[in-house]
Amino acid sequence: MDIPRRNWLKLAAALAFGGRMPPGHAADSPKLLERAIPKTGEKIAAVGLGTWQVFDVAGDAAETAQARETLKTFVGLGGRVVDSSPMYGSSESVTGQLAAELGVESKLFVATKVWTSGRDAGVRQMEDSMRKLRVERLDLIQVHNLVDASTHLATLREWKKAGRVRYLGVTHYHAGAHADLEKIIRPGDIDFIQVNYSLAEPDAGRRLLAAAAESRTAVIVNRPFAEGAMFRRVRDKPLPGWAKEIGCASWAQYFLKWILAHPSMTCAIPGTRNPRHVADNLGAARGPLPDEAVRRRMASYFDSL
Ligand SMILES: NC(=O)c1ccc[n+]([C@@H]2O[C@H](COP(=O)([O-])OP(=O)(O)OC[C@H]3O[C@@H](n4cnc5c(N)ncnc54)[C@H](OP(=O)(O)O)[C@@H]3O)[C@@H](O)[C@H]2O)c1
Question: Is the beta carbon of 92 within 6 A of some atom in ligand 1?
């Protein structure tokens, strides 16, 4: 990072947070962790931004302003992957509008989903998403919750050949679907899976993440905080002293560093419309990560709470 950019980041943070810095965000702290997409080697920042509910704010000026500040902070601190879906109300159009207003379109890696049945309906929905997200070509389209997966994957393979989408993938949010996800990625021609994985929902670690590594499939983690439930569990509980040794300045960083340290991991996408939280989350992608022994300690400590 060059000096003017560092100064800009400090200024942006000071403006965004009224001089109060969120934990672990410091602009001159260690380099942001990037992970390579296995099929191409392209690198993306290991913490992204989920938009479910939090960017579904069209028509509410105050909430749209929060989303704008969040996206600005996210990009200012090096974030790239933004995940949306036609299932998320106005999130796609709000993301497209704010990215254009902020002039950050070229910095984003825009991921959305297809969530309908039938080839023609899928094509119409994906074209609609491109219009709402204001992109000529999407970085990633994922089949949402495996709905009519074989139909949409056939379309997406054609679209990829034609250059209309860069990567294709499949998602789910529940361990009950992990075996189906594994079956789909085993042949090796799926670029990304998006799956739930966290200290509260660790099931993907049993088989699916290893299958992803073997098939060279990138992994995006949704629900990294189990939709916020993990913060309720640790409410009023201080971080253990040893968490500081692996650079955790907050519970969010503890949760995210545990995820990011898994060797199959490409990117985790916590959802938030809070600029302080987005900075906190990106802070997890700076500094050290736990080794396997410390990961086990983190898990048993969390389980004991
Ligand atoms: N089937 C699928 O494909 C699927 C399913 C589920 C989710 N997803 C994707 O994954 C994304 C993430 O999942 P999610 O939104 O369900 O749950 P999540 O990221 O596990 O949790 C979101 C919650 O965590 C809170 N939070 C975020 N950062 C925080 C921080 N640093 N400190 C304290 N609280 C924090 C948020 O509150 P604040 O708003 O107050 O920050 C929000 O309540 C979604 O937005 C979506 O893009 C995909």
Answer: no
Ligand 1 touching residue 56 (CB < 6 A): no
Is the pLDDT assigned to residue 19 strictly greater than 60? no
Report the largest interatomic distance among the alpha carbons of the chain, rounded to a whole angstrom: 55
Closest Cα to atom 41 of ligand 1: 272
Among the residue ranges 9-23, 250-264, 288-302, the one predicted with the least confidence is: 9-23
User: What is the rounded CA–CA span in Å between residue 207 and residue 204?
Assistant: 6
Does the pLDDT of residue 20 top 80, yes or no? no
Q: How far is the CA of 92 from the CAs of 6, 120, 134, 196, 250, in angstroms?
A: 30, 20, 9, 21, 30
C-beta of 226 in contact with ligand 1 (< 6 A): yes
Residue 112: CB within 6 Å of ligand 1? no
Q: Is the pLDDT of residue 164 over 60?
A: yes
E strand or H helix at 211? helix 208-214
- CB 272 near ligand 1, within 6 Å: yes
- Residue 86: what pLDDT? 98
Closest residue by CA, ligand 1 atom 5? 173
Cα distance between residue 36 and residue 266, in whole Å: 7
